[in-house]
């Protein structure tokens, strides 16, 4: 470098307490919302939990509602991608295979985003953000029910259970993990995904007339 050249200045770092960036604040907020309830949690409570001042938190986020929206998006975005991908027809792969894949991958999503999914399952539509999240959940139910109907049409699933009910039962089985699953527990993610998929689809498999 010549004497007339100057190195570009390093980018200015945003102010804020080290170790408490926006993602860390979001994680703490989700944990606190799950423990205390969203409506019962204030930004002051979150500041106390993190050992920060409220102005320090507002440096990263604008409101408690923004944190809720980010948490619900975290729970829904990847699952939406999984269901959307499975809903698309692929050569050589029927609806039944894609439905099994949705169930397995849904377990993976829940395990990876368990705190956010726990929060999602507790919202009741008390705000516009919650209403929007519930609408996204209904969309997922509808798409999964359509996939079940396609698998029934292929002859791969029994046809005596309404597809919408099957969809609810499948998601219900996966969502029940938030109540008991622990990453450091006795069952790893793969084992749980295998068990749920096997139990669900062995029970749903179509049996020939006269079979037990």
TrEMBL record:
<feature type="compositionally biased region" description="Basic and acidic residues">
    <location>
        <begin position="1"/>
        <end position="11"/>
    </location>
</feature>
<dbReference type="Pfam" id="PF17932">
    <property type="entry name" value="TetR_C_24"/>
</dbReference>
<feature type="domain" description="HTH tetR-type">
    <location>
        <begin position="19"/>
        <end position="79"/>
    </location>
</feature>
<protein>
    <submittedName>
        <fullName>TetR/AcrR family transcriptional regulator</fullName>
    </submittedName>
</protein>
<dbReference type="InterPro" id="IPR023772">
    <property type="entry name" value="DNA-bd_HTH_TetR-type_CS"/>
</dbReference>
<dbReference type="Pfam" id="PF00440">
    <property type="entry name" value="TetR_N"/>
</dbReference>
<keyword id="KW-0804">Transcription</keyword>
<dbReference type="InterPro" id="IPR001647">
    <property type="entry name" value="HTH_TetR"/>
</dbReference>
<dbReference type="InterPro" id="IPR009057">
    <property type="entry name" value="Homeodomain-like_sf"/>
</dbReference>
<keyword id="KW-0238">DNA-binding</keyword>
<feature type="DNA-binding region" description="H-T-H motif">
    <location>
        <begin position="42"/>
        <end position="61"/>
    </location>
</feature>
<feature type="region of interest" description="Disordered">
    <location>
        <begin position="1"/>
        <end position="21"/>
    </location>
</feature>
<dbReference type="InterPro" id="IPR041490">
    <property type="entry name" value="KstR2_TetR_C"/>
</dbReference>
<keyword id="KW-0805">Transcription regulation</keyword>
<dbReference type="InterPro" id="IPR050109">
    <property type="entry name" value="HTH-type_TetR-like_transc_reg"/>
</dbReference>
<dbReference type="InterPro" id="IPR036271">
    <property type="entry name" value="Tet_transcr_reg_TetR-rel_C_sf"/>
</dbReference>
């Amino acid at each position: 470098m010549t004497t007339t050249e100057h190195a570009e200045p390093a980018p200015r770092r945003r102010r804020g307490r080290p170790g408490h960036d926006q993602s860390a604040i979001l994680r703490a907020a989700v944990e606190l919302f799950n423990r205390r309830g969203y409506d019962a949690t204030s930004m002051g409570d979150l500041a106390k939990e993190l050992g920060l001042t409220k102005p320090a938190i507002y440096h990263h986020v604008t409101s408690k509602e923004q944190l809720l929206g980010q948490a619900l998006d975290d729970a829904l975005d990847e699952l939406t991608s999984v269901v959307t991908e499975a809903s698309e027809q692929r050569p050589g792969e029927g609806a039944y295979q894609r439905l099994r894949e949705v169930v397995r991958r849904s377990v993976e999503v829940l395990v990876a985003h368990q705190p956010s999914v726990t929060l999602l399952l507790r919202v009741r539509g008390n705000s516009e953000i919650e209403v929007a999240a519930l609408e996204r959940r209904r969309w997922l139910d509808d798409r999964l029910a359509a996939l079940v109907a396609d698998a029934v049409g292929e002859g791969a699933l029994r046809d005596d259970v309404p597809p919408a009910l099957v969809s609810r039962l499948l998601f219900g089985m996966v969502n029940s993990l938030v109540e008991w699953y622990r990453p450091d527990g006795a069952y790893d993610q793969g084992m749980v995904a295998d068990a749920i998929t096997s139990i669900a689809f062995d029970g749903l498999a179509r049996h020939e007339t006269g079979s037990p």
